[in-house]
C-alpha cells in the first residue's frame, strides 16, 4: 500500500500501490529507484507509466518525459501545468552544446561545485557530439577523433563569447589552434593535421548543413528546459522512417534532461534551492540503441545517475528481442544489464518465444510465463456486440522484483485520466470510404460533412 495506486491484484482483488521511487525511498522494497517496462504494443505500457507519473507528481516529484514519439504524454503534462517542448524538422532546435540554465546559475555556486558542474557539462557535450557522429556514420568515432573533439571543446569555451553551436566547433577545428594540433599529433605539419581531421570535419559539416539529421542540432535552442515543473519533449513530428533522426533527438533530449537535473541538485546541495526529485521516463529505448555500434555506451553514460541523487527512472521497450538484436555481443550484454540493474521489471503481454531470454535475466515461474503469454493474444470477436472485444492483456501487468513472485495487476483508470490516456485519437473518425449514409447505403462521405466519431468507450 506504499506508492501510487495502480489497480487491483488480479488474483486477490487487493489494491496494489507501486512506483520505483516510493518502493525505494519509503517501502525499502528495491535497492534502485528504477524500473524497466516490457510489453507488446497497444497493451498499456505508456498507461501504467503515466499513472505512476501522475501519482508521483501529487507527491511532489517532477515527471520528465525525455522524448515522446507518439505522443503519449503531452496531454498529461499539459494537464499538470507543465512544459511541452516540440522538436523535429521545422518544429524547433536543440543545441547540444548549450549548457542550458547552468550558464545563468554558475555564478551562484561555490567554486568547487562550479568546477564539478562545468566538468559535467563538458562531459555531456563530448558524449553528445560523439553520439551524433556515430549515428551519422553508422560507426563509432575513433579514439583520436574523440580526443580532438575534447580539446576543441575546451578551446571553444576559452575563446567563444556566449553559447556556441556546432558550427563554432567546426570552425574551431578548421582554424587548427595549437592545443588541438598537439593532440592531433600533426608533428608540426599543417598538411598532416588537415589529413587527420579530414573525416571528422566532413562529418561535422554533415551535422550543421542538413543531411540525414537535418538542422535540428545546428542552431540555438528554441525553448530552454525548465527544472521546476513537469516537462515533455514532443518529438512525434519525426516520422518513423527517419530512425536516425529519432535516435539522435532522443539522445539529445536525454542529455538535456539529465543536465537540468544535475544543475538542480547542485543548487540544492549549495542550499540555494529546495531539493527536487524527478521521475525520468525514457520511452522507445530500443530506437536509440539500434542507431549504431557503441550507442549502448553513450546511453549508459547519459543515464547513469547515482541513486542518492533523487532521480527515479522508467525505461520502456517492447521485448527483450529488441535489446538482444544489437549487432555485437558486447552491446547485447550491456543492454541486458539495463534490465538486470532495474529495481523492478514490469511486464505486459509478451510472446512465448521471449520467455527464455527474459528468464535468463529475471527468474519467471512457468505459471508467470504462461500468464504473460496469454496476455499477448489478439482480441476475440464479440458476436453480440458485432465488434472486437478488448485484447485480453490490455492494462494487465506483472510486477517483478528480483526473484520474488510477480504481482499481477489490472490498471484501472479514473474518469479524469481517460481523456489523457487515449492514444488512438487519429482513429476516432470513421474513414469516408465505406461509411454508411443516412439512407443506409454504403458510400463515400464528402469532406464537407461532419466526421462521424466513434465512442472511445
From TrEMBL:
Polar residues: bias regions: 421-434
Domain of life: Bacteria
Region (Disordered): 418-457
InterPro entries: P-loop_NTPase, T4SS_component
Gene3D superfamilies according to UniProt: P-loop containing nucleotide triphosphate hydrolases
SUPFAM superfamilies the record matches: P-loop containing nucleoside triphosphate hydrolases
Protein's recorded name: ATP/GTP-binding protein
Amino acid at each position: 500500500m506504499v506508492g501510487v495506486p495502480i489497480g487491483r491484484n488480479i488474483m486477490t482483488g487487493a489494491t496494489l500501490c507501486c512506483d520505483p521511487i516510493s518502493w525505494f525511498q519509503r517501502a525499502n522494497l528495491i535497492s534502485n529507484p528504477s524500473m524497466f517496462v516490457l510489453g507488446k504494443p497497444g497493451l498499456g505500457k505508456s498507461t501504467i507509466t503515466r499513472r505512476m507519473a501522475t501519482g508521483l507528481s501529487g507527491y511532489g516529484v517532477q515527471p520528465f518525459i525525455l522524448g515522446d514519439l507518439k505522443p503519449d504524454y503531452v496531454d498529461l503534462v499539459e494537464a499538470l501545468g507543465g512544459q511541452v517542448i516540440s522538436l523535429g524538422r521545422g518544429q524547433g532546435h536543440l543545441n547540444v552544446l548549450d549548457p542550458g540554465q547552468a550558464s545563468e546559475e554558475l555564478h551562484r555556486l561555490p567554486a568547487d561545485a562550479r568546477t564539478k558542474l562545468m566538468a559535467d557539462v563538458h562531459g555531456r557535450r563530448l558524449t553528445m557530439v560523439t553520439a551524433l557522429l556515430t549515428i551519422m556514420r553508422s560507426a563509432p568515432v575513433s579514439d583520436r577523433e574523440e580526443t580532438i573533439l575534447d580539446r576543441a571543446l575546451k578551446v571553444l569555451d576559452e575563446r567563444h563569447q556566449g553559447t556556441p553551436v556546432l558550427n563554432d566547433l567546426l570552425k574551431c577545428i578548421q582554424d587548427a589552434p595549437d592545443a588541438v594540433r598537439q593532440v592531433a599529433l600533426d608533428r608540426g605539419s599543417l598538411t598532416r593535421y588537415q589529413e587527420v581531421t579530414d573525416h571528422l570535419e566532413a562529418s561535422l559539416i554533415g551535422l550543421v548543413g542538413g543531411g540525414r539529421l537535418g538542422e535540428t542540432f545546428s542552431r540555438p535552442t528554441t525553448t530552454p528546459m525548465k527544472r521546476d515543473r513537469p516537462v515533455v519533449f514532443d518529438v512525434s513530428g519525426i516520422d518513423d522512417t527517419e530512425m536516425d533522426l529519432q535516435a539522435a533527438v532522443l539522445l539529445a533530449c536525454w542529455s538535456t534532461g539529465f543536465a537540468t537535473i544535475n544543475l538542480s541538485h547542485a543548487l540544492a546541495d549549495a542550499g540555494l534551492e529546495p531539493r527536487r526529485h524527478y521521475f525520468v521516463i525514457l520511452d522507445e529505448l530500443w530506437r536509440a540503441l539500434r542507431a549504431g555500434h557503441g550507442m549502448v555506451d553513450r546511453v549508459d553514460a547519459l543515464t547513469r545517475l547515482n541513486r542518492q541523487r533523487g532521480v527515479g527512472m522508467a525505461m520502456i521497450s517492447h521485448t527483450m528481442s529488441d535489446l538482444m538484436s544489437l549487432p555485437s555481443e558486447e552491446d547485447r550484454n550491456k543492454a541486458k544489464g539495463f534490465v538486470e540493474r532495474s529495481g523492478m521489471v514490469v511486464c505486459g503481454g509478451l510472446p512465448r518465444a521471449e520467455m527464455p531470454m527474459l528468464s535468463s535475466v529475471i527468474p519467471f515461474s512457468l505459471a508467470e510465463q504462461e500468464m504473460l503469454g496469454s496476455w499477448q493474444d489478439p482480441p476475440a470477436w464479440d458476436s453480440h456486440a458485432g465488434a472486437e472485444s478488448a485484447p485480453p492483456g490490455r492494462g494487465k501487468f506483472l510486477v517483478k522484483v528480483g526473484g520474488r513472485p510477480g504481482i499481477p495487476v489490472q490498471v484501472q483508470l479514473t474518469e479524469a485520466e481517460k481523456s489523457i490516456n487515449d492514444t488512438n485519437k487519429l482513429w476516432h473518425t470513421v474513414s469516408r470510404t465505406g461509411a454508411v449514409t443516412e439512407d443506409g447505403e454504403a458510400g463515400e462521405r464528402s469532406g464537407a460533412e461532419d466526421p462521424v466519431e466513434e465512442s472511445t468507450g
